[in-house]
Amino acid sequence: MKNTRLFMFAACTLFLAACGRQTVKIMTPPDASNRVLFGAEQLQTTLDKAGYQVMMQQGDTTFSDPEIKTILLTEVNDTTLKKEGFHISTTGNLTRVSGRDGSGVIYGCRELIDRVNDSDGKLNFPEELKDGPEMVLRGACVGLQKMTYLPGHGVYEYPYTPESFPWFYDKEQWIKYLDMLVANRMNSLYLWNGHPFASLVKLEDYPFALEVDEETFKMNEEMFSFLTEEADKRGIFVIQMFYNIILSKPFAEHYGLKTQDRNRPITPLIADYTRKSIAAFIEKYPNVGLLVCLGEAMCTVEDDVEWFTKTIIPGVKDGLQALGRTDEPPLLLRAHDTDCKLVMDAALPLYKNLYTMHKYNGESLTTYEPRGPWSKIHTDLSSLGSIHISNVHILANLEPFRWGSPDFVQKAVTAMHNVHGANALHLYPQASYWDWPYTADKLPNNEREFQLDRDWIWYQTWGRYAWNCHRDRTDEMGYWDHQLGKFYGTSDENASNIRVAYEESGEIAPKLLRRFGITEGNRQTLLLGMFMSQLVNPYKYTIYPGFYESCGPEGEKLIEYVEKEWKKQPHVGEMPLDIVAQVIEHGDKAVAAIDKAAGSVSSNKDEFARLQNDMHCYREFAYAFNLKVKAAKLVLDYQWGKEIKNLEEAIPLMEQSLEHYRKLVELTDEHYLYANSMQTAQRRIPIGGDDGKNKTWKELLVHYEKELENFKANLALLKEKQNGNAVTETVEIAAWTPANVKLISNYPTVKVDEGISLFVDVPGKIEAVAPELKGMKALRFNGNEQREKGTSITFETDAPVKLLVAYFKDDQKKYAKAPKLEIDASANDYGQAEPVLTNAVRINGMPLANVHAYSFPKESKYEVFKPYWGSINHMELNNSFDPAPYLARYKNSVRYADNLIQKVLDYLEEKHLLDETIVVISSDHGDEFNDNKLNFWGHGGNFTDAQIKVPLVIHWPGKKPANIEYMTSHLDLVPTLLPEVLGCENPTEDYSVGMSIWKEAGRRNWVYSKGWSRDAFVEPNRIVLINAAGALEFLDKTYRPSKDKTIPAYIPEVLKENSRYLK
Question: How many C-beta neighbours within 10 Å does residue 770 have?
Fold first, then answer.
């Protein structure tokens, strides 16, 4: 026996030596939640990779073997811990991870995982550690949006389909994204979309509102359920965002509405549709929160309050009532373009679980010293006592280069706490928001780089400091040196150069935008540069109100700085010339640091090379901008002193700036697909980005070269005139040519000139007007009616025209606001965002007015609705065919018919016959455009409302206007007309199976409809088909099998009525 025991011991020793793996046991309670089990799985995976043999034990949590390293995971009711907090204690070989809740256990496991990964696999677990998050919500967003508009759709209108978003259906990518959030201790995922409901729920009352086909709808249901389940076990809360008011395209077309119209009033139909959409969504996905955006697609703050309290909150409550739930899922209210505090004050008595959200620093990242009116919004909202979310809503100002400054982020999150009072974080992607999940990097073989791979440090920095921003700066430098060293396979000491490069380059774009920017977000792509005119006179381009008061430390614009210099006035705050000097210093330091690190990098070398190239891009951009600003300063000096030498000295600076820009073109041409991911009319600085144009530095170089060429030519002309060698000419500004249009709207017109009155109810007359406008035809309005009802202008034209609209330069509510892309995403749909004439009209007693031009292309009189299917091919029709072009053709046909009806009515009125003529307008059928996703098109194919519901409009002199809401049919026309018009005194049943339209009592709640091969009884909620043999088939209103198969009680009545006409 002794020899046997010795043999067994030797064999065991040999086995352990051969595998070299220490055993670690992970224990969980028998009733462990899905989150505790997920934490255990994550910990097991890490320990496996580190070379440990892991034993998983669920059930008995007794620490029975002190020789084995054991980790016990439990949830505890420890009120000394914060929500999602954890307590780690280690005694001997037992490490306890106790979480205040399941999420706390996950984060406790993440603490152990991070320690294993950061110590080359060692189990250096803390003897005692309590930790918890400073911010309640810490999350990132993904936009279900695209770089350009979908055909026939407006901004933000993107149904969830595999064609538009193939990545949405990639479960592997979602797991990777969710695991990234967990690794960075984030607990919320925001999905941004204009109107997601029509992709995710069906409405019984509005079945036609669904925007996707049946197959896609089922895929969306499955994917959304998968996503929410996977997120839940990771302690991640999914929040669906939506804009208001946006309607589904099929719903809008069904009722002849626009999908979005900032100026339309709230109507019962739109409110009912939205309320039921929200109710259905809450009922189906009760654990998903809603982020409500009341801005951009709604008109007034008063509408915002009404919409939130009378449509959105009731919709949520309806969904909860259907589930029998009394708890309240969180509703998040975004403060953009609304009076969020006013809305909250009205809403809190109705719904308690409300959060607020506001952009940290506008739609850009410019400072860690926020102030001004934008900060006041934060402090007002955080004072309400609810959870207030700071939204790092960064779009174009950091696109497309890599950005990841730990120092900047830590200071910014600290400011969120200390200045704004925020206790939650919402994070946009660092770049390429509109192109998710890809970056703008141009890779070999047309491959695409994923944002998750490239921008890992972006998520890690914000996640780390959202958890705890009050960390020691020296310790943090060491932490990031180690993280970067691991990623790039180099020493911590050498990796410190990479960190320095990130932190130095991280100051360049924020400083330049806050000191020289005109606007932010999608509207300005800073890293494409700026034109001289934009630097010299930013006011010409309409500076975004509040931007300079809020986007950074107090300071001066270049135009202000030069004026003060000439007037010998004291300066205040940041100086523009100091900023451009600082950014080239930042660029030099970033390049020196990254180049120093390059030699010892051994991992992720391709990614490091792209990072290194970005640092060189930042440097060249900083130099180009620096030199151009110096040249702009000289141009402003010339405007004050009229010294032509200032302009002469500006030229070499512009030339040098252009040389650096050419180097930037070389560095980006083979490395980037674009500079900005939104490629629509949203961008206006430095130049419009319509249709994906002007999106690269190479394209902008041509414009900047032309700018320098023109500058030199104008300087030469100026010098010629100064030397007396050029003839001074007086240039007379010609008046613009009035367009030839047919005005349908019934407004009086006048010719524009001094002394003319433009308002019928305002005594003030034009005192001065731009010469371009003289002689133009102007419409005279009633100002009070404009304020009460809005302004609608209808006209017809056979040629492209511009409609000129003058907006008063005043913030009073009584004046309409000029188009602003910052708050209205549709503000440049007609090219109207920028004024074409400033200070163009002065009316006595009223503010000056700027003129904006709305462009309308040439279009056929009846080709108003687009996209238009010009040539019909019925062979192309199938269940996935986009109905929009076909429907547009139909609507154009209806418009043509309307025009003919108008001619008839005009003729009757002209001949004084209208008051003695009954006019009946109806149709023999409707037309379907695959409304119910069953591949029905046109008419005669089924008995759904789309095909058999028709209009009936009666003009009957002497009768009061009325709307008939009950069910009628064409059979009711004869018994309506015969007695009253022709004096028929016979009982109705003598000659008709219908009844007078005016009679409601005794009316049937069904109609009999006849088709080519079968007939049907159409009820309010059911269709009963009758085939040639008399057999019945029961369908719902979408032409799918009905659950109600009750034989209609009115069948005997039908047989009796029909038998009266048999011979």
Answer: 20
The confidence score (pLDDT) of residue 71 equals 97
Whole-model pTM? 0.78
Separation CA 213–CA 325 (nearest Å): 31
Nearest to 335 by CA among 306, 299, 296, 366: 296
Mean pLDDT across the stretch 839-863?
83
Nearest-CA neighbor of 192 among 132, 262, 120, 141?
A: 141
Which of 119-128, 189-198, 650-659, 804-813 is the least confident region? 804-813
* C-alpha angle 939-882-259 in degrees, rounded to nearest 5: 95
Long-range contacts of 762-769 (CB under 8 A, 24+ apart): 762/843, 762/845, 762/846, 763/844, 763/845, 764/843, 764/844, 764/845, 764/846, 765/843, 765/844, 766/841, 766/842, 766/843, 766/844, 767/842, 767/843, 767/844, 768/841, 768/842, 769/840, 769/841, 769/842
Average pLDDT for 798-806: 88
Pairing, β 1007-1010 against β 331-334: unpaired
d(CA 284, CA 292): 18
Q: Do the Cβ atoms of 921 and 973 come closer than 8 Å?
A: no
**Burial class, 126, CB count within 10 angstroms (exposed 0-12 / middle 13-18 / buried 19+):** middle
Question: d(Cα 515, Cα 557) in Å, to the nearest integer?
Answer: 6
Residue that has been written with the tokens 């109600």 in this structure = 1044
User: Which residue, among 255, 279, 341, 272, has the nearest Cα to 304 in the 3D structure?
Assistant: 341
Spatial separation of the C-alpha atoms in residues 851 and 866, rounded to whole Å: 28
Pairing of strands 742-743, 795-796: antiparallel
Between residues 681 and 446, which one has the greater pLDDT? 446
CB atoms within 10 A of CB 685: 22
Beta bridge partners of 837: 851
pLDDT for 5 equals 35
> Letter for the amino acid at 743?
L
**Per-residue model confidence (pLDDT) at position 173:** 97
- The better pLDDT of the pair 452, 10 is held by 452
pLDDT digits (tens, 9 = 90+) for 370-390: 999 999 999 999 999 899 999
Position 40 scores a pLDDT of 98
- The CA distance from 909 to 958, in Å, is 16
Q: What is the pLDDT of residue 1?
A: 34
Residue 518 Rama label (left phi>0; alpha psi -120 to 50; beta): alpha
Minimum mean pLDDT among 172-176, 810-814, 1050-1054: which range? Answer: 810-814
| Mean pLDDT score, 1020-1028 | 88
How buried is 1001 (Cβ within 10 angstroms: 0-12 exposed, 13-18 middle, 19+ buried)? exposed
143 contacts 192 by C-beta, under 8 angstroms: yes
Distance in Å from the first CA to the final CA of the chain: 113
Q: Catalogue the E-assigned strands of 144-282.
A: 188-192, 237-244
Task: Identify the sign of the CA torsion 264, 269, 271, 276.
Answer: negative
CA 1048 – CA 150 distance, rounded (Å) = 46
Over 90: is that where the pLDDT of 352 sits? yes
Look-up of token digits 């992709």: 199
Question: What gap in Å lies between CA 11 and CA 270, rounded to an integer?
Answer: 78
Whether the per-residue pLDDT at 886 is higher than 50: the answer is yes
Classify strands 388-392 and 424-427 as parallel, antiparallel or unpaired: parallel
Please choose, from the candidates 839, 846, 840, 841, the residue with its C-alpha nearest in 3D space to the C-alpha of residue 763.
846
CA dihedral 606, 612, 615, 619 (to 10 degrees): -130
Residue 934 phi/psi, 5-degree rounding, is -120, 15
* Helices and strands in the chain: count of H runs, count of E runs: 30, 30
The per-residue pLDDT for 12 is: 36
Is the CB of residue 566 less than 8 Å from the CB of residue 545? no
- Mean pLDDT of the 39-51 span: 97
Confidence class for position 7, pLDDT limits 50, 70, 90: very low
Quick one: residue 464, left, alpha or beta (phi over 0 = left, psi -120 to 50 = alpha)? alpha
